[in-house]
Structure to design on (809 residues):
């Protein structure tokens, strides 16, 4: 499992050095709706709901802590 | 001192704009894009979560307040209050006749009508959670974050710390990040933690209870995000989560059943009340290692934004899960948007998941009938509507429907169980209203 | 070529995000901040910007003999033919004269002879103001087909437009052919050629509402900022504060004007003119700016 993960991350990184945009092409990426987490409150709410009702948690990151609901 | 924009009559501005174009010899000018950096950011929401059939209902108030300092330093404080009511499946299976159970507190009992899914309704609680975080740049390309969290319910205390570091490469086109979170949680079950695999006892009999328990959870996350084009951003994360300590749910039981009929082995309750059958408290391993791979893409198409993510999780309890989450944001005018959302989740059961325990066979090493460790699919479908108020603040309302439907592995069904609806399927309504403003 | 003078040098220094080219022009410290770029390319761009700034300064300065402003101001009632660039600026000044109801007037510069805003209580006497008022009034000038005729004793001063105009012209110079974004800042009147690459926006600090209040930060990705007014230039007598914005229709400072106004707009010229027009509205400065739908900061 760890081997697959390592290969995955290396492939992602080496493919990255040539990709991207010039500084003056970032107008769309700067928009609020293009951020990876647009609404942190909604994301935290969903993370908590699904943590309480399913066996998987997080993935995006972490923060906020546990509860006695699982 | 005020700084805000309004769309009113612009006769002076328009004349001035035209005169400036004539002066500078240009035909068109790119419009100005300026924003005062706010000092404060308030993000607040009210949430209602309600399952049907008398199960869990939650009303929650959540707020994150951020103080923004110069040089991109941010202090954030979060506060959440949850008021929970309703009942949750106790883990015992349906029977053709009525059943009675002792409440987790041990001080009274409750009955479940014939044919009904046994639900434990002592699940009334208020939970308070507080988080604090600090973020600051580290050098020209780095960002450092540290934080702490605390939450308290009547039977549970969580304390945790976290830290992460992100670094930009390639003209900010690539960002690599690493982080960890460590939590120590202590569980003080009402009535005391029951010894695993012992029977549920009569009212006022707490001889199989021991004291408080605790567990540690360590999370590690490594991630990469990459700008692919002007319109496309992708992210990939690998997480590792290691839990050690008391991982049982102290309130959940399994029905001990007859090896032929599959019906719960009967028991005579005591004079003050007690269980009408043999129910054993669940037993889970005291260790769990989870791996997750998460990828996300954000794609901008002519004003609309598609947000799609996929997560794969696997752990040493033999649970595998896949999550696919898609949101599509559609702007309406320039002050509001509509965002449909669909999420598909599927998981396979834990190695020790059992619908019930066969009284005629030796007990397995671990067992739990918690539906959250079973084999099920979950679908969420929702719609969110967001708008900007006249003061340039953000409001949104989302309504979602979450449905879980599961199956028990056929090999686990014994006798009469095969004819019953065993899996406690879930239907929940989620309504959340949010208000966000900066000053 | 602009006049070479002692003090007319360009200095280049590396910054956290790129380069800073600095020089003196129009009585202000001028800088060109770049987002990246290699040293040779940046030096060439900054030199071109400085040359354009000095060209404009020399052409329209009221201190230099022989330039177009000097010829207009010493024509003693004769018509003077002006070139296309000067005509453009005069046409622009006419538009502002009309938009402001006569309170933006390029012939009002002579009032500086009576008023010195040094924080003292030296209010000039009405007689000296009246004497200067005889020499003011665009309505007395004749402007027709590139020929400008002033009454004897009148002078034009393009100082109220010149710096912002220079910023916009220099921003165009900085943008053409450069592989990097830059910000042209002439003593607080500034414009950017585009968003910087390595950060979300250019960050500009502006003074808070009071001297003790903290600085606010503005994220500028496109456009310009200009500031009118100066919190340090005023007169005060008998508890009444006189700001340094003079109303050419009265010869006195505009009453109850804010001490300074900063405006964000598409170009530095627009930002500067909006902040000036707002100042001339005195106590109605904020409602005026709110009506125009621009981002602004008013310091009372």
């Amino acid at each position: 499992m760890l081997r697959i993960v390592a290969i995955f991350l290396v492939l992602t990184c080496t493919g990255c050095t040539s990709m991207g945009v010039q500084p003056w092409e970032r107008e769309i990426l700067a928009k609020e709706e293009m951020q990876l987490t647009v609404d942190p409150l909604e994301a935290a709410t969903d993370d908590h709901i699904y943590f309480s009702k399913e066996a998987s948690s997080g993935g995006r990151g972490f923060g906020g802590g546990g509860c006695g609901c699982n | 001192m005020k700084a805000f924009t309004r769309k009113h009559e612009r006769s002076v501005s328009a004349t001035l704009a035209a005169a400036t174009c004539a002066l500078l010899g240009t035909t068109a000018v790119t419009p100005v894009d300026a924003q005062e950096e706010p000092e404060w950011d308030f993000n607040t929401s009210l949430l209602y979560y309600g399952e049907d059939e008398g199960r869990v209902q939650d009303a929650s108030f959540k707020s994150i307040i951020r103080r923004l300092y110069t040089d991109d330093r941010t202090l954030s404080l979060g506060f959440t209050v949850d008021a929970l009511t309703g009942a949750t499946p106790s883990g015992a299976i349906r029977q053709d006749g009525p059943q009675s159970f002792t409440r987790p507190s041990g001080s009274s009992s409750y009955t479940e009508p014939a044919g009904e899914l046994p639900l434990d309704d002592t699940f009334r609680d208020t939970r308070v959670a507080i988080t604090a975080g600090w973020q600051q740049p580290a050098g020209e390309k780095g960002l450092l974050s540290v934080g702490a969290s605390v939450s308290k319910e009547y039977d549970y205390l969580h304390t945790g710390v976290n830290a992460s570091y992100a670094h930009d490469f390639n003209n900010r086109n690539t960002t690599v990040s690493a982080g960890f979170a460590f939590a120590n949680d202590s569980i003080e079950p009402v009535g005391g933690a029951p010894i695993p695999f012992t029977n549920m006892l009569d009212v006022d009999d707490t001889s199989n209870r021991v004291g408080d328990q605790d567990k540690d959870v360590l999370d590690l996350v490594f991630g990469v995000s990459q700008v692919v084009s002007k319109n496309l951003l992708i992210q990939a994360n690998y997480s590792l989560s290691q839990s050690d300590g008391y991982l049982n749910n102290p309130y959940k039981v399994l029905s001990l059943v007859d090896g032929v009929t599959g019906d719960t082995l009967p028991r005579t309750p005591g004079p003050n009340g007690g269980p009408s059958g043999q129910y054993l408290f669940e037993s889970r391993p005291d260790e769990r290692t989870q791996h997750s791979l998460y990828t996300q893409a954000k794609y901008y198409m002519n004003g609309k934004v598609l947000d799609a993510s996929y997560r794969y999780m696997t752990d040493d309890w033999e649970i595998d899960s896949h999550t696919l989450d898609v949101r599509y944001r559609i702007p309406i005018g320039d002050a509001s948007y509509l965002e449909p959302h669909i999420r598909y989740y599927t998981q396979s059961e834990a190695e020790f998941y059992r619908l019930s325990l066969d009284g005629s066979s030796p007990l397995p090493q671990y067992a739990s009938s918690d539906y959250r460790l079973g084999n099920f699919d979950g679908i969420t479908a929702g719609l969110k509507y967001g708008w900007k108020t006249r003061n340039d603040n953000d409001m949104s309302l989302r309504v979602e429907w979450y449905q879980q439907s599961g199956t028990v592995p056929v090999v686990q069904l014994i006798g009469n169980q095969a004819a019953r609806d065993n899996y406690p399927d879930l239907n929940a309504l989620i309504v959340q209203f949010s208000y966000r403003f900066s000053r | 070529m602009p006049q070479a003078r002692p003090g007319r040098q360009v200095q280049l220094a590396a910054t956290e995000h790129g380069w800073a080219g600095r020089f003196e022009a129009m009585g202000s410290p001028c800088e060109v901040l770049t987002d990246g770029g290699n040293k040779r390319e940046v030096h060439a761009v900054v030199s071109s910007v400085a040359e354009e700034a000095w060209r404009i300064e020399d052409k329209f300065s009221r201190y230099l003999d022989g330039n177009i402003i000097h010829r207009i101001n010493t024509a003693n009632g004769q018509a003077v033919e002006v070139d296309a660039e000067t005509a453009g600026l005069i046409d622009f000044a006419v538009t502002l004269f009309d938009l402001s109801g006569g309170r933006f007037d390029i012939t009002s510069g002579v009032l500086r002879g009576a008023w010195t805003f040094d924080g003292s209580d030296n209010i000039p006497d009405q007689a000296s103001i009246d004497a200067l008022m005889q020499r003011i009034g665009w309505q007395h000038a004749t402007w027709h087909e590139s020929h400008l005729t002033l009454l004897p004793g009148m002078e034009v001063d393009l100082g109220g437009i010149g710096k912002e105009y220079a910023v916009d012209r220099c921003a165009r110079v900085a943008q053409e052919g450069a592989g990097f974004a830059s910000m042209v800042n002439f003593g607080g009147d500034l414009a950017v050629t585009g968003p910087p690459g390595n950060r979300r926006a250019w960050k500009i600090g502006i003074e808070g509402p009071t001297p003790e209040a903290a600085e606010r930060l503005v994220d500028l990705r496109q456009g310009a900022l200009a500031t009118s007014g100066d919190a340090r230039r005023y007169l005060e007598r008998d508890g009444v504060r006189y700001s340094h914005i003079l109303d050419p229709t009265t010869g006195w400072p505009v009453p109850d004007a804010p001490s300074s106004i900063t405006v964000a707009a598409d170009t530095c010229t627009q930002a500067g003119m909006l902040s000036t027009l707002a100042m001339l509205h005195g106590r109605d400065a904020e409602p005026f700016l709110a009506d125009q739908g621009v981002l602004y900061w008013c310091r009372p």
